[in-house]
Amino acid sequence: MSTKKYKRIFGIVMDSVGTGAAPDAAKFGDVGSDTLGHVGEAYQGNLKIPNLQRLGISNLRKTPIEGVNKVERPIGYYGKMQEISAGKDSMDGHWEMMGLPVKQPLNTFPNGFPADIIKKLEAFSGRKVIGNRPESGTKIIAELGEQQMKTGDLIVYTSGDSVLQIAAHEDVIPLKELYRICEYARSLVNGPEYTVGRIIARPYVGPDKDHFTRTANRHDFTLEPIGQTDLDYLKAAGIHTVGIGKINDIFSGHGIAEGYHNESNMDGMDHVDHVMAEDFTGFCFTNLVDFDAMYGHRRNPIGFGKALMDFDKRLGTVLNQLKADDLLIITADHGNDPGFKGTDHTREQVPVLVYSPSMSDGGSLGIRQTFADFGATVLDNFNVKGNQIGTSFLSELKNTEEIK
After folding, report:
1. Is 292 part of any known ligand binding site?
2. Would the annotation count 333 as a binding residue?
3. pTM score, two decimals?
4. In CATH, what number does 115-222 get?
């Protein structure tokens, strides 16, 4: 273990911002996917992300993002990580980052959920289930939302991932009731017959199908971690842990001492700014989901690029606020290529960008063989022993002086 170098580590996950098909993409039907590449193409050279650019977002790629040239001297370290988990969902990606790869594939439901699950949901809720098929959330709400408002039914749907989603109008089914139904659904699919990664409450508002909008009251009821994660090891060692965005949901609260719910990417960055202003020693882990939920699944590369540019502006503030004994790690949990077929996540390598004001140099971290290298680096920094999954890159970071 290396000696502690940084007082605080800030990890930001740009949810779904992949950087090209992973070596095993063929298993998932995702050969040719490239989230960043296709967003750049959609902007025809006008994607302006100067802060990500100077961190090396194009340097880590064989082909630069269109309009985002490689820089001669990135200010930090850059590389790519590839996933070893069996799936390509947010849960798989985040758990693996924190040293708990998901080795056994979870259940997916390409033909909808089995009748026994649907019957139990209907009996518990006293409401009829409609939908029950893989579908885009915005599409199925536009199709069935007005019916749901009239009847009080539950719109149940899934995707290519291991998820069970329940949509309902907030004026028809109160949030408290929707969450209670989702908690019950969670109890049905914890194994052994069916094991589902996430139950997602998807409330929406609006008067009709032309004006329905999904709200920030989404809540993920995630499978309880099946083992100790790096967050658990950190918290047990007395290291302060902060979760921003859906981090708390993904880990079911395990290993998190302080949590914040996000209304949007920008709200999430407000929380990052708030936590950066606090005096603590520890790890702040942030997920920014708008890239995924608002633009990736909806196959909207222009909206995706706008979200990237908005994030990049806020990233400038973060870079300016970092102290010499702070470390920033930016990555992603999977791809969701808005220029690709379908509406599901894409199996891609993800960027890893690492920076501290104390760095004397930048350079390549290469291709990391598992997302778990992220968590291994955090543990290494705080001299905490984990489960030995992943390889720390802490010793590869060069600083101008030893940080006290």
Report:
1. yes
2. yes
3. 0.91
4. 3.30.70.1250
